[in-house]
Specification:
The protein is of the alpha/beta class and 382 residues long. It has 16 helices and 14 strands. It folds into three domains: 115 residues, Rossmann fold, CATH 3.40.50.720; 159 residues, 3-Layer(aba) Sandwich (Rossmann fold); 76 residues, Ribosomal Protein S8, Chain: A, domain 1 (2-Layer Sandwich), CATH 3.30.1370.
Length: 382
């Protein structure tokens, strides 16, 4: 059995070799010819899976090692009887940590006390729910907005969009859907931005087309927003490069690219394929996750408020400013070269480990600082 896999799925050869012959390809090389005689196709968000790719192929099962599935034509797969699986939740914690790093960085730049600030979380699934927990852990007031969940559960925690509009920060974590009652395409439109609290901070690390770039520009030029943080963009990889010059934090769709998240995606698709084939899995995440790059951080020498120490601690593990600077260097290149460089930043992204791999030493493990560090995911040294 032939398995075609994106080389950006870590350890895919070692993990899947007992199931068949694994052919590892660059994402750009996964085309109709490569898929023609494959039984299993394993990809990430770069590969658009549709009739163009699979028409006439022998593929019987497709899996994407990602949360998002808007690059998959699931209707076509169902019509062809091709099995499908994604990896929901695999990189949710990675995105939530990215949001924490963004919040702390923006708060430092604009002298915002997060402990007295509110954040509206739009979309409270695998990612949004983790964002809410971490923001609550930092002492923020969290407003949750998720109409499908609100209708299904009747949970009073979910609030109307009007409550989100009054928040100091607004962060998007919805899937991209273009039809139906809860369509999210251009959810953040002209009316959305006009309704936000003056001086709000807008953040999107979900899907680019959930915000309307033109409407975002109008809000920016009107001075309605204090700050903008974007990891996702309309038209990727051919994005609005002028907008990158104007945002506070801009990154190349890497919020979910922690090493832990990638291995989580590997495990998600591996177990799905094993289930499809009726084979007992032989591997677990522990087989592929290395020892932490930074097992311990001593926060006792860090000076300042709890919030300042949180930022200093996070920066030891993940520098979001480095990702921002790496992306901005693309602006120095000719416009025609930029889209491949956008993809290259994702393909060649360095190893980033998540907070739970690091133990933090604090002066008082029962202090408010220790509680906040624990609240965003760090382990506290005994």
């Amino acid at each position: 059995m032939k398995i075609v896999a994106d080389k950006n799925i870590p350890f895919v050869q070692a993990c899947f070799s007992h199931l068949g012959d694994v052919e590892i390809l660059e994402a750009a090389d996964i085309n109709a010819s490569a898929a023609a005689d494959a039984a299993i196709l394993l990809g990430r968000s770069y590969t658009r899976v549709n009739e163009t790719l699979l028409g006439g192929s022998k593929v019987e099962f497709v899996a994407t090692a990602t949360i998002g599935v808007d690059h998959i034509d699931q209707v076509y797969l169902a019509e062809r009887g091709i099995g499908f699986a994604s990896a929901p939740g695999c990189n949710a914690n990675s995105v939530a940590e990215y949001v924490v790093a963004s919040l702390l960085t923006v708060a430092q730049r604009h002298e915002i006390d997060l402990g007295g600030a509110s954040i509206g979380v739009i979309g409270v699934g695998n990612v949004g729910s983790r964002v809410a927990v971490k923001c609550h852990g930092m002492g923020m007031k969290v407003v949750l907005h998720d109409p499908p969940q609100a209708r299904e559960s009747g949970d009073p925690r979910f609030e109307p969009m009007e409550a989100v509009f009054g928040c100091d920060f607004v962060t998007l974590h919805t899937p991209l859907t273009r039809e139906g009652r809860d369509a999210t395409y251009h959810l953040a439109d002209e009316a959305f931005f006009r309704s936000l609290k003056p001086g709000a901070v807008f953040m999107n690390s979900g899907r680019g087309p959930v915000h309307d770039t033109g409407a975002l520009w109008h809000a920016l030029e009107a001075g309605a927003l204090k700050s903008i943080c974007l990891d996702v963009w309309e038209g990727e990889p051919a994005i609005d490069w002028a907008l990158l010059e104007r945002v506070d934090i801009g990154t190349s769709h890497i919020a979910g690219y922690s090493y832990d998240g990638k291995v989580g995606g590997l495990m998600g698709v591996y177990h799905a394929v094993c289930d499809h084939l009726g084979v007992e899995p032989q591997h677990g995440a522990e087989d592929f996750l290395p020892k932490p790059d930074l097992p311990s951080v001593d926060a006792r020498p860090f000076a300042g408020t709890d919030q300042e120490v949180l930022l200093q601690t996070v920066q030891q593990v993940y520098s979001i400013e480095r990702d921002d600077q790496d992306f901005r260097r693309v602006l120095a290149r000719p416009a025609a070269d930029r889209p491949p460089l956008f993809d290259g930043l994702r393909t060649n992204y360095r190893r980033r480990r998540e907070f739970q791999n690091t133990e933090v030493v604090v002066a008082d493990r029962h202090s408010s600082l220790a509680g906040k560090l624990s609240g965003i995911g760090f382990r506290i040294a005994p």
